[in-house]
Specification:
By secondary structure, the protein is of the alpha+beta class. The protein has two domains: 67 residues, Arc Repressor Mutant, subunit A (Orthogonal Bundle); 68 residues, 2-Layer Sandwich (Dna Ligase, domain 1). Helix content is 37%, strand content 15%. The strands form two sheets. A three-stranded mixed beta sheet has the order 4-3-5, with no helix packed on it. α2 crosses α3. The radius of gyration is 17 Å and the shape is globular. 23% of the residues are buried.
């Protein structure tokens, strides 16, 4: 029973934080809010929630896994490498392509993970851009 409550609490904290967050950020927020949760519990919870499809996991270019509560339907992401803002992408074309490639090579029960990474129009680090604004910046 305790494990389920802790997973729910981690999922709620992640949902309140918005955007993709590390397990350490979730842990710090929960501790600041008065929770007695341990860091290892947060890691176990995000791993389980991710495996269950309740949250999305995103592997950054630096090798860190970030998590976000988002829609339960199958989707991919377009992620800003500067601020972390992400857009969910529906991919009927991607679904078709995935199925066709799998069938061509004799694979079944194929899962896919596609993350498109770039710099959003709101970030000043965008090549050839001026100031930009912070309308999509991740918020703590």
């Amino acid at each position: 029973m305790r494990v389920a409550r802790q997973r729910v609490a981690v999922g709620v904290a992640l949902g309140r934080m918005g955007g993709f967050r590390s397990a350490q950020e979730v842990y710090a927020r929960m501790r600041a809010d008065g929770s007695g949760v341990s860091l290892s519990t947060v890691y176990r919870a995000v791993r389980a929630l991710s495996q269950d499809g309740a949250i999305d996991a995103l592997l950054t270019a630096g090798g860190e896994t970030l998590y976000r509560r988002c829609s339960p339907r199958r989707h991919s992401h377009l992620v800003c490498s500067v601020c972390g803002w992400a857009v969910e992408l529906d991919g009927p074309d991607l679904e078709g392509w995935t199925s066709a490639v799998a069938a061509l090579h004799g694979f079944a029960e194929v899962n896919r993970t596609v993350e498109l990474v770039g710099v959003c129009s709101s970030c000043p680090a965008r090549p050839g851009d001026g100031d930009g604004n912070d309308s999509h910046m991740a918020v703590d």
